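Hey everyone, long-time lurker, first post.

I ran two proteins through the pipeline my lab uses and got sequence/structure pairs for each. Pasting them in order. The first:
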Amino acid sequence: MFFTQSVPFSNNESVGGKEIPVTIVTGFLGSGKTTLLNRILTESHGKKIAVVLNEIGDVNLDSELVVQSLSEELKVMNNGCLCCTVRGDLSRAARDLLKSKVDFDHLVIETTGMADPSPVAQTFFMDEDLQQHYFLDAIVTVVDSFHIEKNLKTVKETQDQIGFADVIVLNKVDLVAPEKLAAVEKMIRGINGVSKLFRTTECSLPISDVLGIGAFDLQDRVKIDPAILQEYHEHSHDDEIQSIYIEEKRPLNLEKLTAFMALLVNELGEQVLRSKGVLNVQDNPYRLVFQGVHMIIGSSPDREWNPGEERKTQMVFIGRHLPRDVLAEGLAMCVAD
């Protein structure tokens, strides 16, 4: 499924006649990839950005959480991992952007938190047609410094994402004591000792540190791992991890919702790896956005609901052995009287 926002060319030059840099933004669930993407889209850098989003599950809620403006093109790919089941869709999306009347000079791909970035990168240096129009600028991995030790122990893709990075954005450093942060950085350097590394809070760093940096060097990669030039076939994910989407069109009572989320954290605990959503709260003209990583959950006001926009609550939970019925019933109990 694609959501597309088109922008007419400002001149007669075909975008297919340019070589367009590609930045792949990866990182485990809840590390801050969408936060970084929003910074890229909102800061003043003079670039026209096209974005491809991918998420686990049938509904991509990230398209609701990403800042959209008339200067960006957004394509959404759902229900699969960008590194395997929808890789063909990625190639088609990149080609569609070239064919469409969209003025852009940089492509940013945000992968699902479970993606191995290696085969995503292969799309752009093993497809001869795409090679004529695109080149890989950098692979940027966002790391949750607070949860990274736990993620490395339980999810293989976390190590793959760090190991393949040209740039590592060590995020959420405000949540980690200095001595612990030094240990985390040492751990990361044990996996990848050559990438640039930036410590950040809320992915706050100059966009010039991640865009247009020419950091990806295929020849250097081949020296380290000759297998990178072989067609990627084998790839597996933790089949226990699932994505559950629930929706409620009736307005919610905020106190009930707060109690429900507290109960959820207490009862399901480590089963929930990631949660996020847009909330429709009674008598509130603003959307509320909530974000959760493991057992840490928070919310903040977003934009006002637009006139004529359907006000509804949309929530996504990603984790292991999650009880869909319990989650749906719990949300229904939060409906305002």
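...and the second, right after it:
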Amino acid sequence: MKKKILVTGGAGYIGSHTVIALCEAGFEPIIADNYSNSEPWILDQLTKITKKKIKNYTVDCTDKDGLKKVFKEEQIYGVIHFAAYKAVGESVENPLKYYQNNIGSLNCVIELMNEYGVENLVFSSSCTVYGEADYLPVDEKHPIKKAESPYGYSKQVCETLISDCLNSNQLTRAITLRYFNPVGAHTSGLIGELPIGTPNNLVPFITQTAAGIRKYLTVFGNDYKTDDGTCIRDYIHVMDLANAHVKALNTMSETGKSITLNVGTGKGSSVLEAVQSFEKVNQLKLNYRIGPKRSGDIEQIYAATELAEKTLKWRTEYSIDDAMKDAWRWEKNLANK
């Protein structure tokens, strides 16, 4: 019998791609989502890709009674917890929303895992926990600094919550994955990043500008201490990231150990390099202009990936060029929805 994996936020960007990776690896994903950062029609797209009807529950993960029904009805082997708000700017404007949802949902999940004897948790964290890097590439031993935003702090608190629950035996096993910058879309073009309103991330802003939805792309600052003056990030294809979650589940089964890992490519690319990659692979010219620096933007960060590669027996397979091709294919398909 296939092992059932509860994917909270499974209709969202990273969650939906992970659902596909789980199906390909022989697991049975079960989605729990309230569609605050996604759309119900993503489920139909998942069916087209996987040729399977994915079981799903419409539920807010801060609603313990609602989520409890899922644990009661399904014999869950593990949980991959994505359900969280993720916009840094919004978190500054509305911190209560972020603390209640991001920390509260994890609290509910762990309580129910403990109650129903579910032993395996994969948690979606973020490289924002590191703040401005003291050294590059950033490894897992890098100090955790004061968070720049309520979003970043919510991830720090969640990591501490997991650690405390492991120490108290209220949680059996957990692998925490600190993502760098997920980009791209499924190669089919049927699912991808679906920002609500104005995008907060670079790549959907690039694709929306190319599609004419946005008049121009603003590159925030060109006088950073980098080769071309723009910020540097570690852009990881979303399918590489999705596959890392499957590897994390397998690793817990094999070793029974808990660990925190960086998930990135190990290579930094500047904002202008990302723009130029998009232009090159899609043979398009983007309308972009240089704007002032944004408050709170980190100059450069990219991951040391050796520990994740060794622990998970995992490596990235896609390039930033691949991600830009796939993101544009998704944007074009999205225009027909």
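Reply from user beta_strand_b:
Welcome! Quick read of the second one: Residues 4-183+235-264 form a domain with the Rossmann fold fold (CATH 3.40.50.720). The two ends are 36 Å apart (CA to CA).
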